[in-house]
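hey can u check if this looks right to u? its 82 residues, i copy pasted from the old doc so theres a chance i mangled smth
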Amino acid sequence: MTNDASAALTSQKYTSNPVRGFELWRMKQVREVVGLSDSMIYILIQRGEFPKQVTLTGRTRAWRAADIIDWCEARAKAGDAA
């Protein structure tokens, strides 16, 4: 499957909201899409290499689905260029 087809499939599978960017994903969904462990995601966050989280309550955080999809697409394009 090409990266474009994979990204389209990911977008269709995980974004049911018709307004892209307004759906929020918790860690489980993010982990499924990006294919990385929690610890690696948090390392990338500390390095500033992963999308920022949105604070929902004092300890509850999530990511904008559109930010995660965009990040995955950028990583795929960077891999294609290498």
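Residues 65-81 form the longest helix (17 residues).
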